[in-house]
Design goal:
Blueprint: H1 2-13, H2 17-29, H3 39-48, H4 60-77, H5 93-114, H6 118-149, H7 154-157, H8 168-184, H9 213-237, H10 244-267, H11 276-294
Amino acid sequence: MTALFENLAALLIVPPLMPGIITKTKAAFGGRKGPPVLQPYYDLVKLMGKGAVYSRTTTRMFRLGPTLSLAAVVLAGLLVPLVRASALAFPGDAILFAYLLGLSRFATVAAALDAGSSFEGMGASREVAFSSFAEPSLMLAVAALARATGGFSLSGMFGGAIASSFGAGLVLIVGSLFFVLLAENSRIPVDDPATHLELTMIHEVMVLDHGGPDLAFILYGSSMKLLLWSSLLVRLLLPFVPGAEGWAVWSLGIAAVAVAIGVVESSMARLRLIRVPQFLVAAICAAAFAVMLTLK
């Protein structure tokens, strides 16, 4: 139960901190002071205090989408090893993890389509199309790790046990998962979360009609999903450490991933839409080569 409570505390408290670190890193690269690291927390509190306006053309799906999306991400987070190994770990939980993230995406897309806007429909179409390239990378990476560790649970595969023994395969998996992290969380070079250019928006265009608590749920769920992907990378490289040192190791690893994302977004531009599939196919190839290395 201790592992469950510690992971749950990390899952509920830490997520908004990652966008704050990314924004602060990008501001430092631009020679600016930037907003406070805790600004996402303030934004969430502000949104929760506002009301929501719903169009008469929408149905219950529009209101249910943000809540269902957040609930699916929270359930997925209970399967991921964060500070400790997941207390809900079981063989095959990696498949459930992928399906829960897919359910979260489905809820967001369905709510966007329910608004009846062709603009949001365009963003939903792009979201679904690009996710079809990102998901094979995750499944191939999981297959390689399952083969290397002999288990099929996230806590076993992402427990840092193969960091010193998998060699080149580990490098390929880390690179593939980092590419998928950028795509799944709508970060540069796949998408720009700060853009307002209509022709290039993907994720942000789907939530334009949401406001108040609904938008807070969406932003919180997005930051939580970013934390989950980052934690998979951290746990792939760093073993579990008992006691308070475990919190320190995990926290530093999460902060390092956030800084790395900020560096990437500060050093390169957004890809053209026709180049995004090529970017994700590279992640698929890297994960596929990792699988081949486990078969030798």
